[in-house]
């Protein structure tokens, strides 16, 4: 059984993330979508909220063999713990590649048993990022073309609550 990990902060999950997860689920027997903590980012949603949003998005698409987890620590350690064969990373542009290549080499040194596989994004998602979604949502823009429909109300509500503070 080939086990793959799709790591990310998923703050929030986008249609671009879902595209990569969907495609990985066709390539591997089991895909673990792991919500990671990134010390350089200040998330809008808590780790538990991101886990819930991902679970709903995955259930909505009925992706079999895909589970969601969270982890605070090194991805290489998580891959060892889960006995993962592959780390799947999505690439949007050349700038993504530079960073992800560096991370892949680091993960390879820390855990030589897990290979990193890059999946290029589909053309319609090349520009899409969680940061862009948050920026548009912050200013009240329409993000319905960027995120799974089942989580759209959660994102809108999060910004309403922030405005009321």
| CATH architecture type | 3-Layer(aba) Sandwich
Number of domains: 1
Low-confidence stretches: none
Shape: globular
Beta-strand residue percentage: 15-25%
Q: Tell me the major beta sheet.
A: 5 strands, parallel
Number of strands: 5
Helix content: 40-55%
Short description:
By secondary structure, this protein is α/β, with parallel strands linked by helices. Helices cover 45% and strands 19% of the residues.
Defining traits:
five-stranded parallel β-sheet, 19% strand, 165 residues, globular, 6 helices, single chain, Rossmann fold, alpha/beta
List the helices and strands and how they pair.
Elements: E1 3-8, H1 15-27, E2 30-36, H2 47-60, E3 66-71, H3 75-82, E4 86-91, H4 94-110, E5 115-120, H5 130-138, H6 152-164
Parallel strand pairs: 1-2, 1-4, 2-3, 4-5
Structural write-up:
With 165 residues, the chain is an alpha/beta fold. The protein has a single domain, classed as Rossmann fold (3-Layer(aba) Sandwich). 45% of the residues lie in helices and 19% in strands. The protein contains six helices and five strands; from the N terminus they run βαβαβαβαβαα. A five-stranded parallel beta sheet has the order 3-2-1-4-5, with helices on both faces. Strand 2, helix 2 and strand 3 form a beta-alpha-beta unit. The chain is globular, with a radius of gyration of 16 Å. The model has no long low-confidence stretch (mean pLDDT 93).
């Amino acid at each position: 059984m080939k086990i793959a990990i799709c790591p990310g902060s998923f703050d929030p999950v986008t249609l671009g993330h879902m595209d990569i997860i969907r495609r990985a689920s066709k390539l591997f027997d089991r895909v673990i979508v792991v919500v990671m903590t990134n010390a350089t980012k200040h998330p809008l949603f808590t780790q538990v909220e991101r886990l819930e949003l991902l679970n709903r998005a995955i259930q909505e698409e009925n992706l079999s063999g895909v589970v969601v987890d969270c982890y605070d620590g090194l991805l290489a350690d998580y891959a060892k713990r889960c006995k993962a064969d592959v780390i799947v990373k999505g690439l949007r542009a050349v700038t993504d590649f530079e960073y992800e290549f560096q991370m892949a080499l680091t993960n390879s040194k820390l855990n030589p048993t897990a290979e990193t596989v890059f999946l290029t994004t589909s053309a319609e998602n090349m520009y899409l990022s969680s940061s862009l979604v948050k920026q548009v949502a912050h200013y009240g823009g329409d993000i319905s073309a960027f995120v799974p429909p089942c989580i759209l109300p959660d994102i809108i509500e999060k910004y309403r609550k922030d405005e009321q503070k």
